[in-house]
Amino acid sequence: MIWVIYVSDKPHSKKNFVIGLEQKVWGVKESKKETIEKVSEGDLVAFVYAISWLKAEGPPPKGFSRVSKDDLENFRGVVQSITLAKVSKSYYSSEEKVWPDDDYPHRFSFDNVSTFGKNIFFGTEFFNADFVEAVRYSACTQGSVTQASSIHIVTDITVVSGEDDDEDTVIGSEGRPILRLHLSRERAPALVKKKKQSVLDKTGKLECEICSVDFREIYGELGRGFAECHHKNPLSLREDNQETKLEDLAIVCANCHRMLHRRRPWLTVDVLKNIYENQRTDSNPK
């Protein structure tokens, strides 16, 4: 079973979160006792810390991050971190002082703490809808310990792009709003042209930074200038008018570009390059 706890970035919550991670214990007040009683040894817990709206999307929904279940698609943006842990001691009650601001007697202990990631795009584009709903509910109920229904293993909290998740289709649709924003920045014609010319001036070719394919080398003049640009810093979407610099873009082939966006959260150029090189090594042993 996987439980979700949303932690806000209010000063006392932030401080309590750090203390909880250090002492490997979490607690709630009497009013939330029923939300924690079923937490059992061996269960997994995901602490989701501080969601913020992307300024590049414009004004946030009214009352964000408190949005209704019917508007789950609006519970999106960037979370500062997702921390995973395994429950080592089932629900118990204790009066021992742990947190300085108040008493949280209803508790569970945990270990095997790991960071799923920091500064992560969040929402139903990237994570299982049941996981997002659990985070939303916890956020709207001041950090209630919430079960992520239908999710039993960690790998199920994220989603994988479907075969029909074509980028041109995404650009022209209302779905996947964060990906649409990201792609629109990658496809700015003037910027892409400058990036390609800059690379040609330096290297004399447009070679994919992941798999090293050069379409001119393969197709001759037909392949001249054929390459795509990938924005290496998608988190720039947190700002509404942040200027994209040439060094923010990577030259990639269409296949590698699709692979970068295939996993949720998106892969980095370096991570995908390592996957590609490791796969080549495994396929061609000496």
UniProtKB/TrEMBL annotation:
Every HNH domain range: 208-263
Pfam families: HNH
Protein keywords: Endonuclease, Hydrolase, Nuclease
GO MF term (any one): zinc ion binding
Record's protein name: HNH endonuclease
